[in-house]
């Protein structure tokens, strides 16, 4: 009878050890998955940060260009505002607006040779299909490398979770 109880005890111990081993494996998988998710989140955060920095730089350049171009037209705007303040009735405003309309304005010339221009996204994907790297695509399209990386990141197909 004792032999039977000892054998039964060893079997129970084996089953418990096996169950503990399986549980430890699942815990490790969960920890690895969490670590991978944190890495992906930090990569995305880094990409967004660098992308935002590029946008800030572009905004600063744009702002300086706008300031350079708008400096001469500011004096014209103040003159127009002073004239508009003097005019009280709607009909008088219309007459003055008609007089101020520039007779030298010409319609923009239409290019007969205008052709189809693919969108930025389709250009990027076409270059990627041809085998260009992200840096080469960015250089060729005169865009930031992170912008190209973000475009590919957002257009990735989601993977199945198992």
TrEMBL record:
Bilayer-spanning residue ranges: 6-24
Key word Glycoprotein present: no
Compositionally skewed regions (Polar residues) per UniProt: 72-81
Domain of life: Bacteria
Residue ranges with Basic and acidic residues bias: 82-101
Region described as Disordered: 63-115
UniProt keyword list: Membrane, Transmembrane, Transmembrane helix
Keyword Transmembrane helix: yes
Name by which UniProt lists this protein: Swarming motility protein SwrB
Organism of origin: Halobacillus trueperi
